Task: inverse folding
């Protein structure tokens, strides 16, 4: 059926779209690249060029984060612009770039190896007891745990508290993904934020009094042009690091291993030539980005793909659609680590062709941390389990909309 001569398209929250959002995105790119979706109260922007404009044009503001992020993050860098953004980002940027980022490498290696050895120990114990050695559920035993462990370690937080960190992280991610506006999910996210604030505040107070060699201490003592971070800002950065910093690595790890094993020829190519690891990560981020969309609010009237969108409107930049735009990528639905139209070298920079880390002035601060975790993990897992494969009769399933990934990955190692 059609209204006013235009075909009726399903809403973003339609169950069929949740099962396969790319079918809708293909139609939107072809028929209505800037489309009003009443189910989430936002214009959907789906073509690569238009999404790029949305990230870089100052008319597309981050005012939406006041209700989408602030309740669980506090007011952070993503909501700031101009000199305020530059000054505050300057206080934390050194810890994620250059020499500041090097401190993460040993932490990543230590925690990754500990998780791998834990997986091996369970299997050795079973073999020693002459018991069958079954499949390993990769997401829960490695992908979910590594980024939380790394972030807790570099913040100088107790390892024993990591299960609670994961519970808070899960509740806050659910809040950020709550496109349907479920009040119970929203309340759980706000509650998790309050609990985490109460937990982290004594650590901040102690590190101000007795700074150590950890990232909380570094943020508490950082000074740029006579300006420093107050306790509220430190809490915000720590919370954002726990949630956003873990989410990218968590989901991309699962997606990458799943996609490589679904395409065994590409798995074997990466296993045998580790120079292809960056390409495998880049293609995973393009093909199946962990965060599938970001919103913006217009501060003036803007024409998007021939459609007039008024000031004050919310627009959703659909990363997952832009990353598979036929106008930018050849055979975009195909997973191909040898793809000639995607640069692995630029994949973790603001010049990258995919939008998994956003673009423009709010390009993801933790992109290089994600790169280090993903590259180390890929190499360490391929070293230890070169013959890994999907368990018999198991097919990976991608789920979610705002955040989309495999949630279970049964592997024979």
Result:
């Amino acid at each position: 059926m059609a209204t006013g001569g235009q075909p009726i398209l399903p809403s973003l929250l339609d169950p069929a779209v949740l099962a396969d959002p790319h079918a809708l995105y293909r139609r939107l790119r072809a028929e209505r690249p800037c489309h009003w979706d009443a189910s989430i109260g936002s214009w959907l922007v789906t073509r690569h060029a238009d999404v790029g404009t949305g990230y870089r044009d100052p008319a597309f503001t981050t005012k939406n984060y006041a209700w989408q992020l602030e309740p669980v993050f506090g007011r952070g860098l993503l909501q700031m612009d101009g000199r305020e953004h530059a000054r505050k980002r300057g206080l934390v940027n050194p810890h994620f770039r250059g020499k500041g980022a090097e401190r993460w490498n040993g932490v990543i290696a230590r925690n990754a190896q500990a998780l791998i050895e834990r997986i091996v120990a369970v299997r050795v114990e079973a073999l020693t007891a002459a018991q069958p050695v079954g499949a390993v559920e990769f997401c829960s035993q490695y992908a979910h745990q590594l980024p939380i462990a790394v972030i807790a370690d570099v913040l100088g937080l107790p390892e024993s508290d990591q299960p609670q960190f994961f519970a808070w992280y899960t509740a806050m991610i659910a809040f950020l993904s709550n496109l349907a506006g479920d009040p119970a999910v929203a309340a759980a996210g706000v509650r998790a934020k309050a609990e985490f604030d109460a937990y982290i505040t004594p650590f901040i107070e102690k590190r101000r009094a007795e700074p150590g060699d950890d990232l909380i201490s570094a943020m508490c003592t950082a000074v740029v042009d006579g300006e420093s971070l107050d306790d509220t800002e430190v809490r915000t950065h720590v919370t954002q690091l726990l949630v956003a910093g873990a989410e990218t690595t968590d989901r991309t790890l699962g997606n990458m291993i799943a996609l490589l094993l679904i395409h065994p020829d590409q798995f074997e190519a990466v296993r045998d030539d580790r120079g292809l690891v960056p390409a495998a990560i880049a293609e995973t981020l393009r093909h199946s980005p962990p965060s599938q969309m970001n919103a913006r609010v217009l501060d003036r009237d803007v024409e998007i793909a021939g459609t007039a969108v008024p000031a004050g409107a919310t627009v959703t930049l659909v990363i997952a659609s832009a990353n598979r735009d036929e106008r930018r990528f050849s055979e975009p639905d195909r997973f191909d680590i040898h793809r000639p139209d995607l640069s692995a070298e630029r994949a973790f920079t603001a010049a990258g062709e995919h939008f998994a880390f956003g673009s423009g002035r709010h390009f993801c601060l933790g992109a290089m941390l994600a790169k280090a975790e993903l590259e180390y993990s890929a190499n360490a897992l391929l070293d230890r389990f070169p013959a890994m494969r999907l368990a018999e009769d198991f097919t990976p399933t991608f789920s979610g909309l705002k955040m989309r990934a495999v949630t279970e990955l049964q592997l024979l190692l």
